[in-house]
Amino acid sequence: MFDWAELLQQYGYFTVMIGAFFEGETVVVLGAYAVQQHILSYWLLIFAAMFGGFVGDQFYYYIGSKFGYGFIKKRPKLAEKFDRASSLIDRYPILMILIMRFAWGLRTLIPMSFGVKKYPLIRYTPVNLLASFIWAWLVVTLGVQLSHWFENIWQSLLPQYHDLIISGAVIVCLIVIVGLLHAFYRSKKRHDPSAKN
Fold first, then answer.
1. Range list of β-strands (E), the chain
2. Which domain does 116 fall in, by range?
3. Would you say the pTM of this structure is higher than 0.85?
4. If we measure between CA atoms, which residue out of 106, 107, 102, 11 comes closest to residue 57?
5. Which letter does DSSP use for residue 107 in this model?
6. I need a labelling partner for 197 at 20 to 30 A (CA). Which of 84, 131, 151, 181 fits?
7. Do the domain assignments include residue 154?
8. Are 16 and 31 in contact (CB under 8 A)?
9. What is the per-residue pLDDT for 161?
10. Rounded CA gap, 1 and 79, in Å?
């Protein structure tokens, strides 16, 4: 028989590192819930998230440095965002490194832009390490606190409104299923020439 708590404790940090590499607040917040449940360690989770985020940002810097503006230019959406990010990097390079993990929609582009602009790696790396720590600490700390609040709210509501919550969940699931079936049917009808006759 598997001990799921032990498995999560052993592989949870690795999962968080991979998730943080790919912009993963979701994985870090799930890890924070595991901290709140005493499955993962608070500080180890912060360092796993920090490491994954740091390596990801260094990787994107390397992509920008190695392939240059040509890599971005081939992708019109990235090129448009690059111009916006580039002007901010020119004016506030340290601040942009510190806040880039909080800039949703630009998080992979900003480190790439630093690489494209050949910003000195010796200056980029230590600030990125600090930025990764700040991001990881903030997301884990907020995640643990939110997990604690939600669990308290859930435990206070569950005994009093158990039947109401279950009924509501069943109704929501039924609405979602009917909506998905309706969307599927409409999509199939739209693409089926025999259905139009």
1. none
2. 4-149
3. no
4. 107
5. T
6. 181
7. no
8. yes
9. 67
10. 52
